[in-house]
Amino acid sequence: MFRSFVYMKMDCREVNALLSSIFFLLCNTGSVFATDRSSSFHRRENVNLTQLQPFVLSTTATVTEIVCLAHCLDSVLCVTAGYNGNDKTCRLYSVSTSPNDSGDTVTTHIKFYRRKATCQEFGYTTIVNTSECYKIHPTALTKTGASKECQQEGGHLIRITSSNMLTNLNVVIDYLGLLRTYLYIDGYRRQGETIWRFSDETIMTFLPWNIGEPNGMHLPNPEDALILGNGSFHDAPQSHVFGFICQRPIY
């Protein structure tokens, strides 16, 4: 486990402005003791490389291990940092593999670290009584575009599962002046069906429809996507552009 501090041999000249903004640094005879102010990293011995690969944020060559971790801390999206000791490359990812996933055994010269941080450090807000976070994006995209954006941030469109969750979310939306703005949330209906499902195929049981909704099943352009507006659910075509709400876990 790599937790709250790093101790490594390195030349103090390697400590640049980036590191200085993230760590408290003490230089002594060429060594650096770096104490992280807010986050910690957990070393992962087994990593599902296939799961990580689609979510590469950046690859940087010729860096030290501590600089690699600093780059991760400096990124709003970074959750996992991978460091190759042979060629000194650093690769950052926007997701973490599941803690219960045994994954592939990592060779000794490659080290993976999972960042542990608060929702706020990723620009998200905590979903009360969960280890999940959400973020409201007012930029209008299609359902496909919104889903891809959430995936790139390590999550998915928000899954609203209870009245308490909806109430808390609506308070924030109202505060932002977006209560009468439509926002994509997770949920879809297969053509010809009346059942609504989340994108992981779980059948939805909490469906607080607005009056007269859902009403677009038999239109030429079926309304088979789910949007939130005026505090309740509406169906809408996936091709329309709306803002959206992402949800992601914090490990």
From TrEMBL:
A Pfam family of this chain: PAN_1
Domain annotation Apple: ranges: 27-119
Domain C-type lectin: 129-247
PROSITE patterns assigned to the protein according to its UniProt record, in alphabetical order: C_TYPE_LECTIN_2 (PS50041), PAN (PS50948)
InterPro entries reported in the protein's UniProt record: C-type_lectin-like, C-type_lectin-like/link_sf, C-type_lectin/snaclec_domain, CTDL_fold, Pan_app
SUPFAM superfamilies reported in the protein's UniProt record: C-type lectin-like, Hairpin loop containing domain-like
PANTHER family named among the record's database cross-references: MANNOSE, PHOSPHOLIPASE, LECTIN RECEPTOR RELATED
Protein name as catalogued: Uncharacterized protein LOC111108892
Species the sequence originates in: Crassostrea virginica
